Each structure stands twice: as structure tokens, then as C-alpha cells.
Amino acid sequence: MEMEERSLVVSSNRHQVGDGGESPRYTIDEALVSMGFGNFQILVLAYAGMGWVSEAMEMMLLSFVGPAVQSSWNLSPHEESLITSVVFAGMLVGAYAWGIVSDKYGRRKGFFITATITSIAGFLSAFAPNYTSLLILRCLVGVGLGGGPVLASWFLEFIPAPERGTWMVIFSAFWTIGTILEASLAWIVMPKLGWRWLLAFSSLPSFLLLLFYQSTPESPRYLCLQGRTSDAAIILEKIAHRNRTNLPPGILVSSHSYDFEEQGTAVEDVHLLSPTQTKVETSQATTSSMVAFSPLLKLLSRELLLSTLLLWVVFFGNAFSYYGLVLLTTELTGTSRCTSTDTHLNVHEDVNYRDVFISSFAEFPGLLLSAVMVDKLGRKLSMSSMFFLGAIFLFPLVFYRSDGLTTGLLFGARVCITSTFTVVYIYAPEIYPTSIRTTGVGVASSVGRIGGMTCPLVAVALVKGCHQTMAIIFFEIVFILSGICVMLFPFETKGQDLPEKV
């Protein structure tokens, strides 16, 4: 009923514009709301979800491959940790680069290149003859994995605004599926076949992305931004046909030009992000393409500076906490690792598969909490409350640790950090306009990778050095600071249309 009322309001607004002999017009947001979420979006969700499964598997295997390679090649602890760090370093570069590529050349080209690099480098790393070649190939895998935010933004741009939060939570569930699948695969493959087979099997989801690539559509929002409204209209017609609904009557217009005509906005006020349809707009697009060589200037513009800086801190805190908690699960449980012998480590290795497998299920209640809160409480309150609750879960570990208590508290903290990670990937694309959406999310994701690179220094190095209390205090500080930054975000995006301009 609410959807019908919204459609009637949208239709009424369009026909008011059409008074005076002009044809009725509609924007992409109005078309998506009118058509609803249907079969077409389910197919887009399946494809983007497979990419999320791929990234989760490649990330989770780091928990298993590092110790196995260390044992096989007699690596030092520093060399073992470098296998993980080079992946995050590659993701740092890739997330920034692929965001720019997809904003300039299209979402499809962006995730095609990333899937190609991830699949080939991931498969070849199974045949790495030595330590150096393994580092190079895993770094390339990281470069490819950096394109994950492109798929998230691509899927987001097909969802009607009223349902965006719920469906982005469902999309995030594919990450959880990937983590559980990888933990199960490692549990089965590692004891019998070894780490090379695990690397090979884990690259298969990326190859599936390439297999079905030809059937994927370009984002109509991106096409409108490029002035290709006729191509965008064709895709919207396909969505309507697949969903068995109808497009609104009239012609598709970019919301940029729609606002320009409605409000009589001066050209200078919209030159940075507007599309091209008239000679004046074409000139504006030329200026915009020149500015694209320095996209950080847009992200750090006066209007976006506060949101961008706070978002970077939150992404850093999320990645630091999430990957740190995964590592802490194996480092804090069982007999104290700081006095362990090599023999004990080998015996304990099978237990680690079980612990990681069980702890991965903490992500399901995290996703359920996100689904319940994100569209009811809003993005900001959902994230901040989960950060503070996660800090509460970790606090008892500062004073007392037993296996049962540690496992339970880490499980609860992982529920919270899964929830915040899910919501921030919904919030981040919603605060940036279409022209720099994937760049903005990509750069924020890159900052998050720095958190992923530094967390082993706390979660592993401090714990193995018998400084467990210091490690927990570090995580407490990160949780609390991240929650405070969320509270300082300048605006809420719940239920709002995706912005086309600043």
C-alpha cells in the first residue's frame, strides 16, 4: 500500500511538470520505485553475491594458508605475516584504482577486470614454486579483490530507495556464506590435500563471474551520468519486462537536468557533477572529466570533507576489528600460544578449523540485527550501537579469560562487528553522488585495508608475545572511537534517493 501511494505521488509530480504541452518525465529513482524489486534484481543480486562470496573466500583462506606455508617452507613468523599483509596491500591499491575505473568507464568494465585478475592470480598462486612468487601472486589477488566495492555499488544502483537497506543486508549475507564455505573447504581439503588445493578451489567463484559476465547489464545511473539516457531507458525497459511491471509514462530524464529545469539552478552551481545533454552540459562534462584525474579533490570538497574523513575512520575501525577478531579466535582459545612448542601448534591446527568454522556462524545473527535495525533505526544509530555493544563484549577479557568465556565473548563481538560492517557498506554508497560513488567507496575501502594490514600486529604479535591484555585494550579503543565517529556523521540516509549531485 505504501509503495502504491509513493508511485501515485511520483506520477502526480511528473504530470505537473508535463503541464503546458510538455511530455511527462521520470527519473531513474522514480522508475525503480514504480517497478519495485523483482526477478531482474534477483539475477543482479545473484551475480554480485557471487563476487562477494569470492572475496570472502579469498580473505578467509589467509587464516589457513599462512601457517601451512610456514610449516612447509620453514618460514619465520615475519615471513608468514607478510603473506597476509601483501594481500591487504594489493587491496589498498585495487580499491582506489577500480573505483576510478568504474566511475569513468562503467561498472561492468570495472568488475570484469577485477574478476579476471582475481581468478587468474588466485589459481596460479596454487602453483607458486617459491615464497617470492607466492607473495607476488597473492598481492595481485589483493589488487583484484579491491574491486569488491564496485559490485556492491553496482547492485545498490538497481534497488528502489524504500527497500535499499533490507536488500543490501541480504547482499551482505553472501559474504557470510563465503566465510562458512571457505572454513568448510579448509576443514576438508587441508588435512588431506594441502594448501595448494585450497588455493585452487577458492579461485573457482571468480571464474564463475567471468562465465556469466556477458549477461550483466550496465548501471542505468552511470549511463544517465554519461548522457546516454536512451541506453539507460532500454535497460529500464528490460527490468520492467523481467519484473512484469510497467515503466512510468513519459520519457526518462537525468535527475540532474530535471533539477536544473525545475529549480532554475545556475550552471556554476552544478558544473562539477552534472551529466551531458545540452551544449552547456557537454562543456560541463569536459570540465568534470578533467577533474576526474584528481578524484580525491571531489571527495575532499567542502560539502563532502567531513563525511569522507569520518567514513575513512569507520572503515579502518571495521576492518581492523573484523579481521582482528577472526585471528583472535584462534590465538586466544586453547592452551596459551606464547609458550607453545611447534609440536603443540601442529596438534592444535585441526582445532583452529573447527573454531573458525563455528565463529563464522556469528555473522548470521549480525546480519539479522542489521536487517532489523537498518531501515527502522537508521544507518547511524545501527552502527554506533553495535560498535559500543562490541566494546562491552570485549571488556571482560581485559581482566579474565577462560576458554568458554573467551569463545562466547568473541562470538558476541563478531556479531556486532558483522552488523557494523554490513551497515557501513550500505551507508557509504548512499552519501556519494553517482559520478564518484564507486571512487568514494573504493577509497574508503582502501583505508579499511590499512586496518586489515595493521591488525595482525595487534591480534597476533601481541598475543604471541604474551601481551593479551594490551591487545584487547587496543580493540576496545578502536571500537569506541569508531562508534563516536559514526555519531558525528552529518546526515542520515535512511529512505533517501541515491544522490546524483553533491
From TrEMBL:
Gene Ontology cellular-component annotations: membrane
Pfam families: Sugar_tr
Keywords of this entry: Membrane, Transmembrane, Transmembrane helix, Transport
Bilayer-crossing regions: 31-53, 81-99, 111-129, 135-156, 168-189, 195-213, 304-325, 356-374, 381-399, 405-428, 440-463, 469-491
Primary location recorded for the protein, binned into one broad class: membrane
Compartments it resides in: Membrane
Keyword field contains Phosphoprotein: no
Domain Major facilitator superfamily (MFS) profile, chain residue ranges per copy: 44-494
UniProt GO MF annotations: transmembrane transporter activity
Membrane topology per record: Multi-pass membrane protein
Region Disordered, residue ranges: 1-21
Domain of life: Eukaryota
UniProt keyword annotation of Transmembrane present: yes
Protein's UniProt name: Major facilitator superfamily (MFS) profile domain-containing protein
Organism: Cucumis sativus (Cucumber)
Lineage start: Eukaryota, Viridiplantae, Streptophyta, Embryophyta, Tracheophyta
